[in-house]
């Protein structure tokens, strides 16, 4: 989230799309309800199904799964055509005025530079135009936004095709409802209004998912909704620490704190190469050398020296040409290339896409370690219960019992980036242990196993700093300190990441977490719940990264001269009386939050009004390089019952297609119905944490599949019947829930049905059922490779097939 | 860090005040619960382990056992309320299905065997080491095209990786656990590092 949960109370309009927030993030509605009751805020729910969120919304707009870019593209068009954008914000705080290279074009669904063989773009024409005579190569701009080659005009032209009629033919939304959504959300483009976009997996789990979010960002920039109370782009995250686990870099393409992991591309040959490739010429990311060197110092301690590139060569470099993300990982496992797996609290046999294939892939492992509180479908994939033949499965399986969150202590980061401490209430149950202790023990024993080795490949393990105290509380404390970082000269904890150095004199495991644990104490433990800001920032409750900032991009809340655009939406402002003249300061940014800006850079300074300091050009990117285009474009999902009416390009041209066994593509003649998946409040993710709890199992005992009355009639299905849902990958049995919550869509004159099924279930636990992910495909988003769980084709039959 | 007696009394009385609408009086029962919790048991604050809202919950434990759990009234996000999952926090602990011992499944076996911690950890390390040692790529030669001349040349690069080991999971772990996980995996040379954030 750019903002945070309590801040939802400050909004004037919440557009909830790709999320059933009322069901899956109930506290969002505590604050949205307050916004409505106290301030008359409007709530819009856009969803293929009438959800609990829709039931509490002012407007419900049905939308066919996989058509977000069309839906939001239409809103972008509406805002531009009706001059409802926040003009001064757009001109100054986005790249709207920048002129684009003459070579850039968009034609029939494709941007310039497309290579159909590689399914990739050469992005060199997606660039700002510069004056050849200018040695600094500064981008050319037209602040009047009239130049036909400026971003604003290109954006306008691109989305002109997304007129309301075309959009509604794609999404299946009734036109009158669509117009009501457009009018209501576009009203937040005024300086004294804010609108928030809340999304979740309904947005992310598509083959063009990143462009869905890009479309939201464009809309929010046009309306001036970034960086203000009640605004922002708010990803409602589904696990208590999925924010933190991402911050810690547990992804193949990242190190900690969003530093890119190096690849075998020659540019990453040495530390200087890494720094050259990863460090832009302008903006806060010019500090990249400090962050990577301080991380290496935290990992490899005294062994990391200037002479040896701070042990940069220890970092593994994946093959730049291959895919190491979740789908790629399971494809490699299926081919027998992966021999062993460590699985901490994950259950891909239920939660992975194409679950039949992922379960089969596990059989090719020589060994697997499962760490969990419960026996899961993944840890028992080899059993008869799983439908497997144990006598044919070679895998050596280890199950390590983990204790629960309140049988240990540690921190978790919520969606709003608040790093909160959890205290220990009771000792671990039985012989279970904390994951921290398990990982510490593994690391310690691995180092022992390699002790004395002279093989250079073992140096990273020998030099890895792991001399932590064994006692639980001290172990945790030391790891937290290492994450925060030290001044290695004074051995003191660092107060903030601005103090990091690139000369090896500071260490910091995760630079964005720097400041969470300083010489003043452990700030994640702060529990002062007085709101000193009046807008619900709670600055003394826990610690929010970065630097306890609660609303990021908050420089956008003030105008070019540093005054709030409006009293109602103020966050920070420039105070010329607050500077220290002795230091040559002209003033200071002050207000209701930690400024997302250099606090003493005046609005009149050369870079004083470039609010997006993490971007190399300092402004919000209406036009931005993505794998599949600088602007979002609508393509149909990998499996779709209809043709793309916007262009001849049916499917995202840069999404990777896996042509592999057990991953058949279904066609609409055989599988005419759109399938999607979702969750209920009583269960959580792959289910082990809730299906094993008798109270929750009793509340929601069965897998059900929701379908419209019209489809049920066609198929001869009654409410409560057992039915079979089948896709090209597999089939599952579920209880039919025949409901008016689903309605058939009219897609460009064709009636299209959509059904939705819960994905929490498996065969272990108190509440059991078939995993819905047996139906979903191995196809991922063009940029992130997140699987397309939310739109695929299927058919449904009465009875168990 | 601790919830005061006064704050809990405030919560209890607020709950009681809403009860008459039920048509019967639960005051004595509620008073008893309130008294019991306040007098004898220290509530320990925690954060809900389920979704990303980050709601505060409190756990009451005595004599090494969990007695009750409920929403943390002092927490700014949920202010004492919970959803169905947060309300069920208690059963994560009081649950016969929780795993209490390390288990081992031998190749081609159809059952688990109980093992002690030392045995499983040592055996896992043995497997990690053998797999890593047998499947390690130290260097690779990659082609680089000179931007000006277009001439390709070979560049040797240290890649220091094993593609034979994968690590999964992390979103249910604490930050400190994820940190040790990522540091250990990278130092082993693991490049198949993935978790729920991708999904």
List the keywords.
heterodimer; A: 801 residues; alpha/beta; Dimethylsulfoxide Reductase, domain 2; Rossmann fold; 4 domains; globular; B: alpha+beta
Description:
The complex is a heterodimer of chains A (801) and B (199). With 801 residues, chain A is an alpha/beta fold. Chain A is 24% helix and 15% strand. In chain A, strands 23-29-24-26-25-30 form a 6-stranded mixed barrel. A 5-stranded parallel β-sheet of chain A has the order 3-2-1-8-9, sandwiched between helices. A 3-stranded parallel β-sheet of chain A has the order 10-11-12, with no helix packed on it. In chain A, helix 4 runs antiparallel to helix 7 (164-171), helix 4 packs parallel to helix 10 (209-222) and helix 14 crosses helix 16. Chain A starts with 12 loop residues before the first strand and ends with a strand. The model of chain A has no long low-confidence stretch (mean pLDDT 98). Chain B folds into 3 domains: 5-93, Phosphorylase Kinase, domain 1 (2-Layer Sandwich), CATH 3.30.200; 99-133, no CATH class; 135-199, no CATH class. In chain B, the strands form 3 sheets. In chain B, strands 1-2-3 form a 3-stranded antiparallel β-sheet. In chain B, strands 6-7-8 form a 3-stranded mixed β-sheet. In chain B, strands 4-5 form a two-stranded antiparallel ribbon. The longest helix of chain B has 18 residues, at 117-134. Chain B is flat. The interface between A and B is large, with 164 and 115 residues. Strand 12 (396-401) of chain A pairs antiparallel with strand 4 of chain B, so a sheet runs across the interface.
């Amino acid at each position: 989230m750019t903002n945070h949960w309590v801040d939802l109370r400050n909004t004037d309009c919440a557009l909830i799309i790709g999320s059933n927030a009322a069901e899956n993030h109930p506290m969002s509605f505590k604050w949205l309800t307050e916004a409505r009751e106290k301030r008359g805020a409007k709530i819009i729910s856009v969803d293929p199904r009438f959800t609990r969120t829709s039931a509490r919304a002012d407007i419900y707009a049905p939308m066919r799964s996989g058509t977000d870019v069309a839906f939001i593209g239409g809103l972008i068009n509406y805002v531009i055509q009706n001059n409802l954008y926040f003009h001064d914000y757009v001109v100054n705080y986005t790249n709207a005025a920048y002129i684009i290279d003459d070579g850039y074009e968009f034609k029939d669904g494709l941007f310039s530079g497309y290579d159909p063989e590689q399914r990739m773009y050469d992005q060199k024409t997606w660039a700002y135009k510069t004056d050849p005579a200018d040695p600094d190569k500064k981008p050319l701009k037209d602040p009047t936004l009239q130049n036909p080659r400026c971003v604003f005009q290109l954006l306008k032209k691109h989305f002109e095709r997304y007129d309301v009629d075309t959009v509604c033919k794609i999404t299946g939304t009734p036109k009158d409802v669509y117009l009501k959504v457009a009018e209501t959300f576009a009203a937040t483009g005024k300086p004294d209004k804010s609108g928030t976009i809340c999304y979740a997996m309904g947005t992310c789990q598509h083959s063009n998912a990143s462009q869905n979010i890009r479309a939201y960002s464009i809309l929010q920039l046009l309306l001036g909704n970034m960086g203000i109370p009640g605004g922002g782009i708010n990803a409602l995250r589904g696990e208590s620490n999925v924010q933190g686990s991402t911050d810690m870099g547990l992804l193949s393409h990242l190190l900690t704190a969003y530093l890119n992991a190096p690849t075998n591309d020659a540019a990453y040959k040495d530390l200087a190469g890494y720094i050259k490739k990863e460090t832009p010429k302008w903006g806060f990311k010019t500090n990249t050398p400090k962050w990577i060197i301080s991380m290496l110092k935290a990992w490899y301690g005294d062994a990391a020296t200037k002479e040896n590139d701070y042990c940069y060569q220890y970092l593994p470099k994946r093959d730049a040409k291959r895919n190491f993300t979740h789908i790629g990982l399971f494809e490699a496992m299926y081919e027998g290339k992966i021999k062993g797996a460590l699985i901490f609290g994950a259950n891909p046999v239920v939660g992975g896409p194409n679950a039949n294939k992922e379960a089969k892939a596990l059989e090719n492992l020589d060994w697997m370690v499962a760490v969990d509180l419960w026996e899961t479908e993944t840890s028992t994939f080899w059993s008869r219960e799983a439908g497997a033949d144990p006598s044919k499965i070679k895998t050596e399986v280890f199950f390590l019992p983990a204790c629960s969150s309140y049988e240990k202590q540690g921190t978790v980061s919520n969606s709003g980036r608040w790093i909160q401490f959890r205290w220990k209430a009771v000792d671990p149950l039985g012989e279970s242990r904390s994951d921290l202790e398990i990982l510490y023990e593994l690391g310690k024993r691995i180092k022992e196993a390699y002790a004395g080795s002279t093989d250079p490949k073992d140096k990273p393990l020998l030099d890895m700093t792991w001399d932590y105290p064994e006692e639980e509380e001290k172990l945790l404390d030391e790891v937290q300190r290492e994450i925060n970082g030290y001044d290695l000269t004074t051995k003191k904890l660092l107060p903030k990441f601005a103090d990091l150095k690139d000369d090896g004199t500071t260490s910091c495991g995760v630079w964005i977490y720097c400041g969470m644990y300083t010489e003043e104490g452990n700030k994640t433990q702060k529990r002062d719940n007085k709101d000193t800001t009046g807008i619900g920032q709670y600055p003394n409750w826990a610690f929010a990264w970065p630097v306890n900032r609660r609303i990021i991009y908050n420089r956008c809340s003030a105008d070019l001269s540093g005054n709030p655009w409006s009293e109602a939406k103020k966050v920070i402002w420039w105070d010329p009386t607050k500077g220290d003249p002795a230091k040559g300061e002209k003033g200071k940014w002050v207000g209701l939050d930690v400024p997302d800006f250099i606090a003493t850079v005046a609005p009149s300074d050369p870079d004083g009004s470039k609010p997006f300091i993490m971007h190399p050009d300092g402004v919000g990117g209406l036009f931005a390089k993505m794998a599949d285009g600088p602007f979002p474009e609508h393509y149909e999902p990998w499996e779709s019952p209809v043709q793309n009416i916007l262009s001849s390009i049916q499917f995202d041209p840069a999404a990777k297609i896996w042509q592999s066994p057990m991953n058949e593509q279904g066609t609409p003649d055989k599988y005419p119905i759109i399938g999607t998946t979702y969750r209920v409040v009583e269960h959580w993710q792959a289910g082990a944490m809730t299906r094993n709890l008798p109270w929750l199992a009793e509340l929601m005992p069965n897998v059900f599949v929701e379908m419209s009355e019209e489809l049920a009639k066609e198929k001869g299905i009654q409410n409560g019947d057992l039915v079979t849902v089948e896709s090209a990958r597999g089939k599952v049995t579920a209880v039919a829930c025949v409901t008016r919550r689903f309605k058939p869509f009219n897609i460009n004159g064709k009636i299209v049905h959509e059904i939705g099924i819960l994905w929490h279930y498996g065969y272990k636990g108190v509440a059991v059922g078939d995993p819905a992910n047996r139906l979903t495909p191995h196809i991922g988003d063009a940029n992130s490779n997140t699987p397309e769980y939310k739109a695929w084709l299927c058919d449904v039959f009465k009875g168990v097939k | 860090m601790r919830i005061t007696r006064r704050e809990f009394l405030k919560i209890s009385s607020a709950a009681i005040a809403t009860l008459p609408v039920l048509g019967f009086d639960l005051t004595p029962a509620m008073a008893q619960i309130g008294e019991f919790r306040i007098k004898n048991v220290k509530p320990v604050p925690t954060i809900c382990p389920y979704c990303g809202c980050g709601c505060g919950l409190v756990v009451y434990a005595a004599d090494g056992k969990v007695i009750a759990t409920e929403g943390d009234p002092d927490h700014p996000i949920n202010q004492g309320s919970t959803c169905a999952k947060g309300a069920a926090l208690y059963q994560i602990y009081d649950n016969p299905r929780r795993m209490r011992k390390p288990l081992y499944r031998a190749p081609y076996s159809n059952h688990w065997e109980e093992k002690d911690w030392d045995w499983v950890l040592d055996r896992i390390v043995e497997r990690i080491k053998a797999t890593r040692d047998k499947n390690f790529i130290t260097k690779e030669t990659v082609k680089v095209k000179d931007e000006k001349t277009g001439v390709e040349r070979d560049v040797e690069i240290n890649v220091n990786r094993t593609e034979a080991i994968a690590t999964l999971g992390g979103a249910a772990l604490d930050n400190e656990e994820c940190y040790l996980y990522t540091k250990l995996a990278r130092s082993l040379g693991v490049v198949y590092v993935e978790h729920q954030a991708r999904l």
